[in-house]
Amino acid sequence: MTGxxxxxxxxxxxEDAMPVHRFGRLRRSPRVLAVDLSRPVTDGPTEPxxxxxxxxxxxxxxxxxxxxxxxxxxxxxxxxxxxxAPAENWAHAQELRDAIVAFRAGGKPAIAxxxxxxxxxxxxxxxxxATGFDEVHLQPTGEVGVTGVAMxxxxxxxxxxxxxxxxxxxxxxxxxxxxxxxxxRAFTDAHRESYDRIVAxxxxxxxxxxxxxxGLEPDRTAAVLDVAPLPAAQALAAGLxxxxxxxxxxxxxxxxxxxxxxxxxxxxRYQASRRRRARLDRRRPTIALVHGQGIIQVGRSRPSxxxxxxxxxxxxxxxxxxxxDKRVRAVVxxxxxxxxxxxxxxxIWRAVARAREAGKPVVVSTGGVAGSGGYWIAMGADRxxxxxxxxxxxxxxxxxxxxxRGLLSRLGVTTDEVHRGTNALLLSTTEPFTDAQxxxxxxxxxxxxxxxxxxxxxxxxxxxGHVDGVARGRIWTGADARDHGLVDELGGxxxxxxxxxxxxxxxxxxxxxxxxxxxxxxxxxxxxxxxAGDEARALAxxxxxxxxxxxxxxxxxxxxxxxxxxxxxxxRDGPA
Length: 576
Description:
The protein is an alpha/beta fold. The protein has 23 helices and 20 strands. The strands form 5 sheets. Strands 10, 13, 14, 15, 16, 18, 19 and 20 form an 8-stranded mixed beta sheet that branches. β3, α5 and β4 form a beta-alpha-beta unit. The longest helix is centred in the middle third of the chain and has 26 residues. The termini are far apart.
């Protein structure tokens, strides 16, 4: 008997299913890690849904962690990255570059591609990151627009005069320049001295990175950049790039270097696979990571129309949770702030001190800036790690208010008042300070500045006279701050976690678990204020807002905007 037989697939099996041997080959195939740095990295707690809605770039820590893991992964043979606009400040650019250099230390190649080092973001930041790669590819129509380093300071004294607004501010001391912006029309000698050294230090760092990364002599590097912007062909001839290529050609080159059957894996997909494996091992020693970003204020951390607000209550809660968690062996405190309230800064300083008293070492890792209140909250840590380009210090204080009586009069607005109490109108924007009130302001500035210097001297183990000499409101780069004892080491997340391991007695080769604190609800991670006792309603509000954003295709904020700017203008804040 003859006939045809029909194969019947078994349960859960497809007729076109991939053969087992081919699936195994794919799992073992070499990989090229694709990193998209066409938008600036963010810093702070990772909020995937928030990033999806806002369209922001990847987290700096995520990029650093994934590169570190890929360096140890035998399957990952190379990195291919777009570097059109990777960073918004010197510190982030330097940390990304350091992470790439560390990846390459094991002999794995890394290729950078940019459409142009002049259009999408800050040219110096993008090219600085690119110099950490083995090869730098540039689109044939692009250019290298790294022309140097400059700081341009606007002064608004004439504008305030035209508006009939008086800026009544005082400071401690001559390098505390926030007041100068309001009351001067050009640099004072101290202001110019401070900024000139910042520019010189950053320029030195840029030239050193380009010379080292591109294998050029320092003098040759300076001469080449002095004639920038350079079209792609001239940049190639000068040795600033390695190849003229479109992005698809660069991807093909990376796959070729990785070997036969190589395939691309995105940073997000690679990170997801790592997280699944990490969940299986809860026995690792834990290091807490507490973020402190934005203008420092009393209360909760939150977004605002002027950027992120670092709330003393939220940061304090993070440290308190770290103290209570017996698994936490040390704390890394990531700080990025220009300052804010002296009271809030001191509350956070105390939270750091309490963690240390509880036997939890604290390592501060600073981002783009740790100035004034941003340095106050850092100075009590066991160790401070800063990038070479981090704006650091500004150990000083400024205080004051705007008096807008003349402007209101010109606008046809009149005011009248009644009061009780000698200083009831101290913060009034229609009445200037009296002589007695100026004396009180001066005494307050002396007190806050003195306490600031004393705490820096005690926390850093420095002579008070030395601290006063490098303080007086002056800002430094991280490199210069280290030379003056304000910073211990140069680096970023990798250096900070290594220091935390050391202080906690965790072996350098042992894997650790990082717990981001404070633990928050979904609403708080998205920047929404959660109504007390009504979590469900808050979540519904978030989802409704999210759907609305998706429908209209806009990037409107999902967060409410707190009204704190007025308090700043009226002078309620300390160091800034």
